[in-house]
Automatic annotation (TrEMBL):
Pfam families: Flavin_Reduct. This is Flavin reductase. It comes from the Bacteria. Residues 150-278 form the Flavin reductase like domain. Gene3D superfamilies: Electron Transport, Fmn-binding Protein, Chain A.
Length: 307
């Protein structure tokens, strides 16, 4: 009993919570506010880079907009990111705006737990930091967790050429609704980045929540290509137009024709058009959200199913 009461004061919450959500998530609404205007960007914003932390949207919301995340059911404010415009990308008769995250704050925990939990989390990040490893500053990770208040779906991305094949998990993905584009933010060091820039086509498999363990194992393929499709512990099926091997048990397989790519800080932002979209099964998809968001929902009696 005492142990449970004291736990939040001695141990930080996990940064991330892996949860099962039926797509598309509608539990959290994201709204951009600027110059007296507001627009819903739940399906129109994505993370473009982690270092620095950059958000992309197809709206031009001026120089200093505020991005608000609210619980869709109650309207309660969950978190806020303060943005500063850094660049525009013009491609395919449309344009996107890139915003640097200047500040952020969440409301998922009350005072004094909110600053205390952040302090515990930041201390742990600094302790586990390796000098040779890519890692954003703890303050930026706190802001990233706010961007994950909208639970982010996990997909497996498949690339297939005669000389290179690969499959790896991604969650820095999403539609940029108003432009009709779909984005992927991939670390510049990912082994498939040069191939994707050249072949300009990938298949995305929406992953059932039950496949969490196998998906995490495939994270190693951010660094090394797949030797052969036969080594995978699950079956693949060809995607509809491109014939790229994709996950047979996927909830959905989408093919993306890449129309633009550019480096944004630590990541390469790929922008594409969905050329085919096969809905194969109903069910809960693997998603990531912030640990403090799950703690908020647990307190509220509406936790996500955790996996
Ligand atoms: C579920 C999941 C989703 C991921 N999503 C992305 C992503 O969207 N973009 C990206 O560059 N890397 C993504 N990664 C890769 C990780 O950031 C990391 O590069 C990989 O796990 C290798 O980790 P290491 O560099 O710590 O060894 C993802 C990994 C996992 C397990």
């Amino acid at each position: 009993m005492w142990k449970n009461l004291m736990r939040p004061y001695v141990r930080p919450l996990p940064q991330w919570s892996t949860v099962a959500v039926a797509p598309p998530q509608q539990v959290v609404t994201a709204t951009l506010h600027w110059d007296g205007k507001s627009e819903d960007v739940t399906e129109d914003h994505t993370v473009a880079s982690l270092v620095p932390l950059v958000i992309a949207t197809s709206l031009d919301a001026g120089q200093h907009p505020v991005l608000e995340y609210r619980d869709s059911a109650t309207g309660r404010l969950l978190g806020v990111l303060r943005l500063v415009k850094t660049a525009s990308i013009a491609t395919e008769k449309t344009s996107l705006t890139l915003y640097h995250v200047a500040a952020g704050e969440h409301r998922c925990l009350g005072w004094p737990l909110r600053p205390w939990n952040a302090w515990l989390q930041n201390r742990l990040m600094l302790k586990n930091r390796s000098p040779h490893h890519f890692a954003p500053e703890p303050g930026a990770v706190q802001q990233l967790m706010i961007a994950y208040l909208c639970p982010r779906p996990v997909v497996l991305v498949c690339v297939d050429t005669p000389g290179h094949r690969n499959i790896f998990p991604m969650d820095l993905i999403g539609p940029l609704e108003r432009s009709g584009l779909f984005s992927l933010a991939l670390r510049n060091t990912n082994v498939s980045v040069p191939v994707m820039r050249e072949v300009r086509r990938v298949a995305l498999s929406g992953i059932p929540a039950a496949m969490k363990a196998v998906v995490y194992k495939l994270a190693e393929h951010h660094k090394q290509p797949l030797p052969d499709w036969n080594v995978l512990p699950f079956s693949v099926r060809p995607s509809r137009e491109f014939g790229i091997p994709a996950v047979a048990a996927a909830l959905r397989i989408q093919e993306l024709a890449i129309v633009h790519s550019r480096e944004v800080g630590s990541h390469t932002l790929f922008l594409g058009r969905i050329v085919s979209d096969e809905n194969l099964a109903e069910g809960a998809q693997l998603h990531h959200t912030a640990g403090f968001h799950q703690a908020y929902r647990r307190r509220d009696g509406t936790p996500f199913a955790e996996i």
